[in-house]
Amino acid sequence: MIIRRMFTTPAFRWKSPYDELDEMRGRLAHLARALSGEPESRPDAGVYPLINVTEDKDHFWIRAELPGIKADDLDLSITDNHLSLSGERKIPDAGASAKWHRREREAGKFSRMIELPDRVDPEKVKAGIADGVLSIMLPKAASAKPRQIKVS
Length: 152
Description:
Layout: H1 2-8, H2 17-36, E1 51-55, E2 59-65, E3 74-79, E4 82-89, E5 108-115, E6 126-130, E7 133-139
Antiparallel strand pairs: 1-2, 2-7, 3-4, 4-5, 6-7
């Protein structure tokens, strides 16, 4: 088992010469795109917005990165234990005479379905957006909260 673990860790993984060439080709392509100003395709493209889900004793919290998006451009809904977040990031109007030199921020519609860890009370959910971060407070349903059981 120790030997298997040693050879599967990244530091000891055996690479063929072709793997090294593929990595070098990828780095050269990345450099060529950066020098040309072409938008770089990201491996996480399509997973937008990035979110964090946390919980405390009484709530789940979802925080989503949404810089430049107004509250009116967002749509939130809850079904069972799923939160749906969708909206649209619009291309800023630079004016008719403006010439774009670089546009790396993606624009367009997005949609994410987030599975909640447990049931929430949908009537008490609150959301707000400030400084490009959407914060959603989801109160846990009574059935989702821990209960003290008295031992007799």
